[in-house]
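Lab manual, section 2.4: Encoding a predicted structure.

Procedure: take the sequence of the chain (181 residues), apply the prediction step described in section 2.3, and record the output as structure tokens. A sample record is shown.
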Amino acid sequence: TGGPNALVELLDGLGADFPLPILLVQHITASFLEGFVSWLEGVCPFRVVIARDDEMPAPGKVYLAPPDRHLKVVAGCLRTDAGDPVCAQRPSGTVLFRSMAQGLGRQSLGVLLTGMGEDGAEGLLALRNAGGHTLAEDASTTVVYGMPGAAVRLGAVCESLPLPAIAPRILELMTPRQEVC
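Recorded output:
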């Protein structure tokens, strides 16, 4: 709930020159996904695509989980699968974050924005425990504090920030002198 607008604000804040690929899990009905991809590409500075198996993620591109499939990073490539739902979700943010924790560890950054339920919280904890940096949207700017709140309660969040501060913080974290939690 509130995710698309929050996502646009975050992506706009990163800017068209953002040097990393962006992997995205959006809880959305399969019949709306193609339209969402088109809309998002029209309102943000990035190329937006539905992720495909064995695709190597490229900088400056947003990869969305396909309908009813989990998105993972395995050996540097994107993988999708129809594994069991996690937190009643497929795709699941927790599945993506866990794969990032296993494959990227300290080189990963996970962000959890507004939304209902608890999806993403346990995966964000795995990412943080693997040495990655984790951010969650602060309650002051969320439409629904469900997912970020669950992550905060688990101790999965390095920093809880208002939405307008998340993109600038990501850009700061990309500089070599910044310390992670």
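Check your result against the sample. Residues 30-43 form the longest helix (14 residues).
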